[in-house]
TrEMBL record:
<protein>
    <submittedName>
        <fullName>EcsC family protein</fullName>
    </submittedName>
</protein>
<dbReference type="Pfam" id="PF12787">
    <property type="entry name" value="EcsC"/>
</dbReference>
<dbReference type="InterPro" id="IPR024787">
    <property type="entry name" value="EcsC"/>
</dbReference>
């Protein structure tokens, strides 16, 4: 009979294969189209968007850290940590669904408001995840790790594979990191959300799309966060259970 840690190890191997699998034809075609569009956007505009997102994320990081219970993982086994994360994910997912339906029902302008609101929900959830698995979010290193988990969840192809490699080898990779590549961060996140968020702005249709999209986006983030922290605990910080 497998121990829980062996079960998690097998799940991590399956997750790794899924993350690193080669993209299909439609995914490659979509990425090429998005790359062409990005090249048509003036560099000055990219810099403005990048700086705006950077400041927004940094502000959210500070607020999320203040409101996070940093002692909720004391004495918990890996199984108990996973179960607690699932409970938190259910709560945050419900919040995101309500927010997505509400902003989606309002058409274009409320649809625009969804971007910072959903970003805040996601970042707050990641701070909760870090605390659940026993990592100190006061640390710059841990905030940088959170941003890489976010990027892994919401990027594609080559960026996703590079980010996975960084997370998988965090103990050595963290020493060469000074800050995020914010331009890549904003482009990948924007490209990942483009189509679904455009549909969310369609009046009368946006509420359904917004609720469904936010539900799936939180599920993706939850799976990514759980496996990223499991990987750190099992592969770099062995514990006795």
């Amino acid at each position: 009979m497998y121990s829980y840690e062996e079960k998690v190890y097998n799940e991590l191997q399956a997750w790794r294969r899924d993350v690193l699998k080669r993209p299909g034809f439609l995914t490659q075609l979509s990425k090429k189209t998005q790359t062409k569009i990005n090249r048509m956007i003036p560099d000055k505009a990219h810099k403005i968007i990048t700086e705006s997102l950077k400041k927004m994320v940094q502000a959210i990081l500070v607020g999320s850290d203040i409101t996070t219970n940093k002692h909720q993982s004391v004495g918990l086994s890996l199984y108990e940590q996973d179960e607690l994360l699932k409970e938190k994910l259910t709560s945050y997912r419900k919040t995101a669904v309500v927010e997505g339906a509400g902003t989606g029902a309002g058409g274009f302008f409320l649809g625009l408001a969804d971007f910072p609101m959903l970003l805040s929900i996601k970042m707050k959830f990641l701070f909760e995840a870090a605390a659940i698995y026993g990592f100190d979010t006061n640390s710059y290193e841990e905030r940088l790790f959170i941003l890489h988990v976010f990027q892994l969840a919401f990027s594609r192809d080559a960026t996703r594979r590079r980010t996975y490699y960084t997370i998988e080898n965090w103990q050595t990779e963290k020493d060469r990191l000074i800050d995020m590549d914010w331009r890549v961060f904003q482009q990948e996140y924007r490209d990942y959300l483009d189509l679904i968020k455009l549909l969310q702005m369609v009046p009368g249709f946006g509420a359904i799309v917004g609720a469904y999209a936010n539900h799936n986006l939180l599920d993706t983030l939850g799976e990514t966060a759980m496996n990223a922290y499991r990987m750190r605990l099992l592969f770099t910080q062995p514990r006795d259970y």
